[in-house]
Design goal:
single chain; alpha+beta; UbiD C-terminal domain-like; nine-stranded antiparallel beta sheet; 37 strands; 37% strand; elongated; binds flavin mononucleotide; binds manganese (II) ion
Length: 735
């Protein structure tokens, strides 16, 4: 039977009769139980839950040679796709089942981790990081029996080929029973138990081949036995409680049993039975489990296998073999599959959530401050393309993050690129990250290379000659895509419009062209400048070149966004056009962000002053102003002032005005209409809103408009100040 994606997605499959009947439990141990945290445990209860969520499709009659592998490939490459449970697989006991794509949707990952549903993948990762911070492992408890022993086979009775292990990828060298599985080993020195997900191939009825990359805990354990000339006792589980599986493929620290880690997460210990052959702990509710001994005396060819980087990277080679001494399985067992595909795939998605949390935790544990986000991208299989965002605090901060992120446990194995970005970039958003790389890195100086880092035979980029000498190291590209700390206060501002952008004085538009981003901060006084739009003196030069010399109309003018005088800090001037020359011209200044810690923050400030013909004018505007003076807060979503001076029949005429939207002073909303509205506040603070000063004298006139003017105890702050000035040339017609 050919299985199509449409068939999987259709509800027809799920509406057919369920092969799940009633399972008489012969066991004393409860199988599906609620932990003390209320989180469901056990694969079968979890399946009931996801079916109730409408996220399980049942498929009957697909074959294990081709159909299940192909259907899994389709499903796991579609984000937020359902899980599929296959039964009635031709050639096998019709009640034997295969579950795939269990974690192919964010809600199912959240459910497994005991988190709320409805969160985004980044929110799940963040909630997970917070949940396991400081979590203490809870030792597994041993019980005497469990449903896993519903069927027991020993000796020649063992046949691993009775299970419908699919051929997952067309190029696979065999049937892989172990993908959504784990291997259990015990350290022969210290006695701690490791649980690791390592792929397992069926060689024949009693022999399994398994591949573990160098450096993994299961391999370190196994090697210790081999070095002593001993066989390595191993138990393997093919189908388990979903959280146990996730633990098996997570970088739980060396020396900590993943079973105990699961217990800590749930607040309820994992229940295990002691394997009669090896003494290893086996979860009571395992679907299929084996015990046996691995030896390096007998090796068989393992692979090729479609691997997580999207290649048959490690090809085929001799690997140790597990001689199976006992086989246990539940009635109507469920073989869980999570075969890798070209990323982004199912495992890239669940591992991105888990690894991003772990990597951030580990970077913070080595005492690096101000990490604002981490994402281990799905497209890199959650290992090859990892991004960290930081709020830069000191020179060298960005490089420290890069090197640490590439070498702590969660980032060390099989990495390729690590990128550090400023906190205004969302590390989980590939486009934003690549924009930062394109516009904030300088290839000659922003990239560090680490040589001979921990990689894997799976890495397709390791050249043949290095493979031959078992050199499975690679290099890492560490890309600093932050604005250089030393001159970040001069880095050009971004053009992305921010909220509350004011396009006309009277109206405030809430545009969200860009995702609202955190304010960039270089530390200390921070002003990001937008390059001047118009060359300051070009028009003035043109003007003076075209007309005869004095006497002529002359100008002066200036606009400033913030002009403050504060004890200890001194004088602070931000967004100043500078003085307009007597000959006129155009002066402009813009800043994207103003951050004067403890005093004032604002965004998108523009100031301009111009003088030409018979007209002189200036203006200043800011959005999202937040001013704090002696603990009194003054905020406005937009402020603007303008001043004008013009000559009419040789006589000066002047005017000024200010607009303030959303003005709140000390918790009170203020509607501004009249000029020079004075607000007296505690501590002798005076705020003049829409302050205007105008005067004329003979041929000269000047006007100043200050949107806000605050004075208090030696403090003076003027926000959005515009000044225009003109001296009329009485001899000039029209002037
Ligand atoms: C579906 C899946 C299959 C995996 N297969 C292998 C494998 O065949 N060999 C391996 O070394 N790691 C494999 N891994 C990665 C390990 O499970 C992972 O590195 C884990 O942390 C190993 O456990 P350990 O930290 O106790 O060594 C696989 C991961 C997943 C999710
Ligand atoms: Mn481990």
């Amino acid at each position: 039977m050919a299985v199509t994606a449409a068939a999987l997605a259709s509800s027809d499959c799920s509406s057919r009769g369920s092969p799940l009947g009633k399972y008489p439990s012969r066991m004393a141990v409860t199988l599906e139980r609620q932990s003390t945290t209320g989180q469901t445990t056990g694969l079968r209860a979890w399946l009931d839950e996801i079916e109730q969520m409408g996220q399980l499709r049942r498929v009957h009659g697909a074959n294990a040679e081709e159909d299940i592998g192909a259907a899994t490939d389709v499903l796991q490459h579609a984000a937020e796709s359902p899980a599929a449970l296959f039964d009635q697989i031709p050639g096998y006991d019709p009640s034997f089942r295969v579950l795939v794509n269990g974690f192919g949707a964010t809600d199912r990952i959240a459910l497994t981790l005991g988190l709320s549903l409805g969160l985004s993948r980044v929110e799940v990762s963040d909630a997970w990081r917070k949940k396991i911070r400081g979590m203490q492992p809870l030792p597994a408890v041993e019980v005497s029996d469990g449903p896993v022993f519903e069927n027991v086979r020993r000796g020649d009775d063992i046949d691993m080929t009775i299970f419908p292990a699919p051929r997952w990828h067309p190029g696979d060298g065999g049937r892989y029973i172990g993908t959504g599985s784990f291997d259990i080993t015990r350290d022969p020195d210290d006695g701690w138990v490791n649980v690791g997900t390592y792929r397992v191939m069926v060689h024949d009825a009693r022999r399994l081949g398994y591949y573990i990359s160098p450096g993994k805990h299961g391999r370190l354990h196994r090697q210790k036995y081999f070095d002593r000339g001993q066989k390595c006792p191993v138990a393997m589980v093919f189908g388990s409680d979903p959280l146990q599986f996730l633990a098996g493929c997570t970088e739980v620290p060396y020396g900590v049993s993943e079973f105990d880690w699961v217990g800590g997460v749930r607040g309820a210990p994992v229940q295990v039975v002691k394997g009669p052959i090896t003494g290893l702990p086996i979860p009571t509710d395992a679907e299929i489990a084996v015990e046996g001994f691995a030896t390096d005396q007998e090796t068989l060819v393992e692979g090729p296998f479609g691997e997580w980087m999207g290649y048959y990277g490690s090809g085929s080679r001799h690997e140790p073999v597990l001689q199976v001494e006992a086989l246990y399985y539940r009635d109507q067992p469920i073989l869980v599959g999570s075969p890798p595909g070209q990323p982004p795939d199912e495992q890239a998605r669940y591992r991105a959530i888990l690894r991003s949390a772990l990597l951030r935790d580990e970077i913070e544990k080595v005492a690096i401050p101000d990490v604002t986000g981490v994402w281990c991208h799905e497209v890199g299989g959650s290992r090859l393309f990892n991004v960290v965002s930081i709020k830069q605090r000191y020179p060298g901060h960005a490089r420290q993050v890069l090197h640490a992120a590439s070498q702590v446990r969660a980032g060390a194995y099989a990495g390729r690129y690590v990128i550090v970005v400023d906190e205004d970039i969302d590390p989980s958003n590939l486009e934003e990250v690549l924009w930062a790389v394109c516009t904030r890195s300088d290839p000659a100086t922003s990239i560090d290379i680490v040589h001979r880092a921990w990689s894997t035979p799976l890495d397709p980029r390791i050249p043949p000659e290095r493979r031959q000498v078992a050199d499975f190291t690679n290099s890492r590209g560490l890309i600093d895509a932050t604005r250089p700390w030393e001159w970040c206060d001069q880095y050009a501002g971004g053009t992305c419009l921010r909220k509350n952008y004011v396009s006309r004085p009277s109206e405030s538009f809430r545009l969200r062209v860009c995702r609202p981003r955190p304010r960039l901060d270089c530390g200390g006084v921070n002003v990001r400048r937008i390059p001047r739009a118009i060359a300051a003196f070009a028009l003035a030069a043109l003007w003076t070149a075209g007309v005869s010399a004095a006497p002529a109309t002359s100008f002066s003018g200036q606009a400033t966004l913030v002009n403050a005088s504060v004890p200890l800090l001194g004088k602070i001037v931000v967004g100043d056009t500078g003085p307009l020359p007597a000959s006129g011209g155009n002066l402009n200044n813009s800043v994207a962000v103003i951050d004067l810690p403890g005093l004032l923050t604002a965004e998108v400030g523009q100031s301009s002053a111009s003088g030409q013909g018979n007209h002189s004018s200036s203006s200043a505007s800011l959005t999202d102003v937040a001013l704090t003076v002696l603990g009194i807060s003054i905020t406005a979503t937009a402020v603007q002032s303008q001043a004008e001076a013009r000559c009419q029949a040789g006589q000066p005429q002047v005017s000024g005005s200010s607009q303030l939207a959303g003005l709140v002073i000390n918790g009170q909303s203020i509607a501004v209409a009249a000029p020079n509205l004075t607000v007296a506040l505690p501590l002798g603070i005076t705020v003049v809103v829409n302050e205007q000063k105008s005067s004329t004298s003979g041929a000269s006139g000047e006007s100043t408009a200050n949107a806000l003017h605050v004075t208090a105890l030696g403090i003076e702050v003027v926000v959005a100040s515009s000044h225009a000035d003109i001296t009329c040339d009485k001899g000039k017609p029209g002037a």
